[in-house]
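Supplementary Note 3. Input sequence used for the single-chain structure prediction.
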Amino acid sequence: MTKEVTLYTAAGCHLCEAARRVVSAACDELGFELREVAIDGVPELEAEYREWIPVVEIDGERRFVYHVHPDALRRALSD
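The predicted structure, written as discrete structure tokens, is reproduced below.
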């Protein structure tokens, strides 16, 4: 079964840009599809994610905030 990988980001967020590079590379390498969600201007998403972005969820479970370590992400995707 394929895991659902979601990256929550906001415009102008340098940590989001770094996370996008790491998550995209791991997803490409392991064959997962990345869903990216911009929280900008969506009140519900802003309330839930703004103070934590970037946020990576795997199968709906929050797994990484702020920084995404490539090896830890690969392990999480391989579980």
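The radius of gyration is 12 Å. The chain has a mean pLDDT of 95.
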